[in-house]
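Appendix B. One record, verbatim.
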Amino acid sequence: MISKKLDEYAEKHTSPELPILAALNRETHLKRGDAVMLSGHLQGEFLQMLSQMIRPKCILEIGTFTGYSAICLAQGLQQGGQLHTIEIDEELQDIASGYIAEAGLRDKIIQHIGKADEVIASIDETFDMVFIDADKSNYELYYDLVFDKVPVGGYILADNVLYDGEVVLPASQQTKNARAIHSFNSKVKADKRIEHMIVPLRDGIMIARKISE
């Protein structure tokens, strides 16, 4: 969403990528045609910093992909804390689990394979922080499913909420996913139980803080 030069400048003036994340970044780009889904250096550092500020006891991530964002988010967990991450594509499990182990986070990150709505219902936890980064058509569903599992003062984050700029186009010119994202953004905007903002980083991150039940 910003020029390549500004993006490169921002990366250059951001704390360096952890070696394990740099290796995961490289392998994902070498092996996956959909590597654009990887959070990457800037967004990863942003997620890590948020987690380190919030110091969550328990995190839920919806959409593991190759594990980059899970590793970033886990950096801010409290002592004894855990992160649950859900991925529907079982072919991605091995690469994610390998890097999670290399990062020394095997005891902190629990991987789930399956449909997110079913997995969410099966996890009996309260989440101080939720990160939604999965199929765009179900963002509203995931938001509703996790809301009561987040305490007042907890956070719900969602990725890709600008959807490559399509959200500002007329509805007739938006793709199905862009329309779903715009609908999600409108739902969040209308929810009086939260305070929220969109951070125009990368493809846009919605940050919502729960202020009432």
